[in-house]
Amino acid sequence: MHHVSRKSGRAIRTVLAAALLGVSSSIFAFAAPDAAPAAAPAGVDVTIVEVGPYKATAADITAEFSHAPPPLIADVQRSANSGRIQVVEWYARLLYEAAAKQDGLYERHPGLPGWADQRRRAVIGKAYIDDFIVQNYTPTDTEISSLYKVEGKKLCAESASYHLARIGVVVGLHASDVEKKEAAGRVEAVQKRLAAGEDFAKVADEVSDTPGRARGGSMGWTPAADLEKSPEAAPITALATGEVSAPVETRHGTMIFRMVERQDARTLPLEQCRPRLEKDIKNSFKREIARQRIDDLAERFGATINMEAVIAAIRAVPLAPDWQATWKPGSE
Predict the structure, then answer these.
(1) pLDDT digits 0-9 by tens, 292-331
(2) What digits encode the pLDDT tens for the residues 158-213?
């Protein structure tokens, strides 16, 4: 039986997380972002995962996860720990599948590979129809213009976003009175430097305890929906471009923000919104197109189906008397 060392498991977690991780975008977090794992090995042909006959390079894994739900990738990019969790689950599935083949699971549960293929076909089928529509159906300018007039305010709404920079002074949760006094003195010193006209970015680089995405304490652009989740957000979102906030107290310490640039909520002009409008039009015809495509493909492949016989075969599956009590959504 093939055994994979714990060292191999750690290596795989490191490589995949390195491929997907970015920098945390939380503007109220004082701790530095999770340390990113080491970079993946050089060369697209280097095998970084091997389980039995299965082999994959970094390029293979990146291509595979490019079809994953965006929230999953965003979660991995925000947190190294999330990356490790996702990699462990992904790696475990490879090992379970290899063991199932060797340990006789398929013989004890005939039809299981076929059901697993159903899940695979569902993913591929959706991708196929989406791609077919993209390749074969292009909305006209008249259709796009008409939809913009009717639904533009809803489909083309762009929420506010803020480009912020920050200077932070960290104070531990169990800081002594002396430490708190020292932190307060540092905040006061920062305020005096800013009031004297010193450059915010220069001060941030010299004294801030908090990491930014770039020099000068820059946090990049933050959507209003993300920023406004925090109770400390109100005085920040009220800042005008170029304005500096009063000290903002958080459970981690004190922050001073500068509004580098802001984009208030608006309705995108037609040309900027065109991709959204095209997508909406295509989606509105998706079901009709899919049905027609089924007929076309059945003819193309000479396919046949006895609908009633298939339904009868599915109904023949025995159900446990207590299945409703034991089954949970998502457990299939």
Answers:
(1) 999 999 999 999 999 999 999 999 999 988 888 888 776 6
(2) 999 999 999 999 887 788 889 889 999 999 999 999 999 999 999 999 999 886 65
The CA distance from 20 to 9, in Å, is 17
Question: What predicted TM-score, i.e. pTM, was given to this entire model?
Answer: 0.56
Q: Where are the domains of the chain?
A: 6-109, 160-264
Q: What is the pLDDT of residues 294-305, one digit of tens each?
A: 999 999 999 999
CATH topology (fold) of 160-264: Chitinase A; domain 3 (3.10.50)
With cut-offs at 50, 70 and 90, classify the pLDDT of residue 268: very high
